[in-house]
Amino acid sequence: MSGVNHPRVAVLALLAVAAAWGSTFFLTKDLLTRMDVADYLALRFLIASVALVLVHPPAIAKLSRLDRGRAVALGITYGIAQLVQTEGLRHTSASVSGFVTGMYVVFTPLLGAVILRHKIGRWAWFAVILATVGLGVLSLRGLSMGHGELLTLASAGLYALHIIGLGAWSTPQNAFGLSSLQMIVITCVCAIGAIPGGFSVPGTGRDWVSVVYMALVAGALALIVQTWAQAHLTPTRAAIAMTMEPVFASTFAVLFGSDSLTWRMLVGGALVLSAMYLVELAPRRKFEAEVQHLAQ
């Protein structure tokens, strides 16, 4: 595809992923009043796994042994992050949880510098700070570091590791297989978390529609797109793009939920958008030199 700006397309793809994730917040909040957290996650990712395997059965078999090991590691990391984040949400407010989870935008360059010896340029750091301030304005109404916040902070670190791993290991060629195997592993991790209380399923057709939507659109399709996009982006740039998730979550909550538009949403969203704009306009070499892909 000559002439295609893959990094720019990848950023747009991640924005679509963030929009899909953001659309699930008000749906999940409603669904979890009638369904256990671990049961919901296990069912959601099981449906997504089946869909991915049925769409392209040979994808996992075509992965190299090394790629399979990496997919398992990524799936375990993401699955644990989901369980830890959701458990943390039980002990803190949704707004604080959204902010603390979004701290992966800070952890990603920090862990990338430590693990992969990346040197992060000043433009990237400025964008990270801007996005973090935007998340704070958007989400925070006071912050106390209790049990829930600490669990959520741990999940943010795990999400950052997942972003770094995808950035280093994904390629356009292995994206589908890597996504499929990851999804199966995530399902297994969430199913283990659901075992103690037994399994339950949605009780109404409307709840099933919500679960299937979150499984196929915000689950299977989103992970494929994220995996492909991160083959073309640095981890920091990808993390900043994904901080748009709470902005989309607030937008959908206003449009389709019961939330009202506030100045905090407008100012916080504008700051996150400014960080995105800075990433796209900053000298590209500052970002493109940040990470090398480790597909071999």
UniProtKB/TrEMBL annotation:
Residues annotated as transmembrane: 38-56, 96-116, 123-144, 150-169, 181-199, 211-231, 238-256, 262-279
Gene Ontology CC annotations of this record: plasma membrane
Location, primary (coarse class): membrane
Membrane disposition: Multi-pass membrane protein
SUPFAM superfamilies, per database record: Multidrug resistance efflux transporter EmrE
InterPro entries noted in UniProt: Diverse_Substrate_Transporter, EamA_dom, EmrE-like
Keywords: Cell membrane, Membrane, Transmembrane, Transmembrane helix
Localization in the cell: Cell membrane
Pfam families in alphabetical order: EamA (PF00892)
Domain EamA: from-to ranges: 10-139, 148-279
Family from the record: Belongs to the EamA transporter family.
Protein name from the UniProt record: Threonine/homoserine efflux transporter RhtA
Source species: Kribbella kalugense
Lineage start: Bacteria, Bacillati, Actinomycetota, Actinomycetes, Propionibacteriales
